[in-house]
Write a structure and sequence with these properties.
alpha+beta, Aminopeptidase, single chain, 14 strands, 2 domains
């Protein structure tokens, strides 16, 4: 590496970060608005600049302070936002300045969430694996595609002191290593329906026949619509056994992600029958990628299949808006028939999603004693 190719880290204004994320179709988790939403973290905006001062990549670093100490976990969720094919050619050029910056900022651990793809499986391959009683983990199934750049980054991280932060059964505490992505590029509504399984197509038809109507919350109705969504969301949480977020969180998300000038679009879709809310979804779009973040449904009038109708509405909206990917977010690798997580895999594959394994989340301990202490602290908090 010559001196002329060296990169350095500099601070960045909020609009500079957001422009950099949008330009590379980066994750909404790397936007300045996400830092504002995560009030328990302290956000820092950075850029990689070359010797000419030109920005080559950006990142949102969230700092989680240790109690009573001025040291932090430095975390880049689904980031940084870099040209990953270039990173794969010389990872030290990109990660070296980041590590030095994190160390200087007082981080005891640096965690990245590289979104670059390492391996992928088609819906058909995953469906066959789900039907095979001898299979328990998708990781043990031969992938349909291996990305050389993603694999090169994984190999480099493994050989330079980084450790996976997204291993283990179930969903890890951070962002998912496996995601279910529905490709929209080159698709039509007809081809998307053809890619779904028969039950999904039947459910969409049932929602239409029942008279389910889906509308998008407007600025005038948003406050009342979020309150209605939250009531159904709490019912869903009680039914599925997870802890719901407070209603105020979603009001704040809508305010930040839907703010004028933000590259993110926040969309709450509500599936109603005879004026009764039966299902709702929250999607966020940045550039050419739409993320399905939250879904909620009531047990009332299940035969109307309002959730399928509302999901199909969101997919069609993303297609109309020119999105390349409809990201249905995470799954686990667990595909044994008796594993409850296998049902989520089966649900998302039935929509026609491909499964992608990202390079994922990796930790680099900068102070091993404090790194270990923080792991113990998080474990005690549950």
């Amino acid at each position: 590496m010559t001196d002329s190719s060296a990169l350095r880290i500099v601070s960045l204004a909020a609009d500079g970060l957001d422009a950099g994320v949008e330009a590379r179709s980066g994750s909404f988790l790397q936007l300045s608005s996400w830092a504002a939403l995560k009030s328990e973290w302290v956000g820092e905006r950075i850029a990689w600049v070359d010797q000419r001062g030109e920005v080559q990549g950006v990142g949102l670093v969230l700092h989680r302070r240790l109690p009573r100490l001025r040291r932090s976990l430095a975390y880049l969720p689904e980031g940084p936002v870099l040209p990953w094919d270039e990173v794969a050619e010389d990872p030290q050029r990109w990660f070296g300045p980041l590590v030095a910056h994190a160390r200087a900022a007082g981080a005891f651990t640096l965690r990245i969430g590289c979104p670059s793809t390492a391996r992928s499986w088609t819906p058909g391959t995953v469906k066959d694996a789900l039907a095979d009683d001898t299979r328990t983990s998708l990781y043990a199934v031969s992938p349909d595609s291996v990305d050389p750049s993603g694999q090169a980054i994984v190999s480099w991280l493994q050989s330079h002191g980084w450790a996976r932060a997204d291993d283990g059964p179930g969903f890890a505490a951070g962002q998912p290593r496996l995601t279910a992505d529905l490709t929209l590029t080159g698709q039509t509504e007809e081809s998307l329906l053809k890619g779904m399984n028969q039950q999904w197509r039947r459910n969409i038809k049932a929602a239409t026949k029942a008279g389910v109507e889906v509308r998008v919350a407007t600025p005038e109705t948003l406050r009342e619509d979020i309150a209605a969504f939250h009531r159904v969301y709490v019912e869903t949480a009680e039914r599925d056994g997870f802890t719901p977020r407070p209603e105020a969180y979603f009001h704040r998300m809508a305010e930040l992600m839907g703010a004028p000038g933000s590259p993110a679009r926040f969309e709450l879709a509500l599936g109603e029958l005879d004026g009764e809310l039966l299902a709702a979804t929250i999607n966020i779009t940045v550039a050419d990628r739409c993320w399905y973040l939250y879904g909620a449904s009531t047990t009332a009038r299940r035969e109307a299949r309002a959730m399928n109708g509302t999901q199909w509405f969101g997919i069609r909206r993303a297609l109309e808006q020119g999105c390349a990917i409809y990201d249905m977010r995470g799954i686990t690798d667990e595909i044994a028939a008796d594993n409850p997580h296998a049902g989520l895999v089966r649900f998302k594959i039935s929509v026609g999603c491909e499964v992608r394994e990202r390079v994922g989340e990796w930790d680099l301990p900068l102070n091993r004693l404090l790194h270990k202490a923080f792991q113990v602290y998080l474990g005690r908090r549950g």
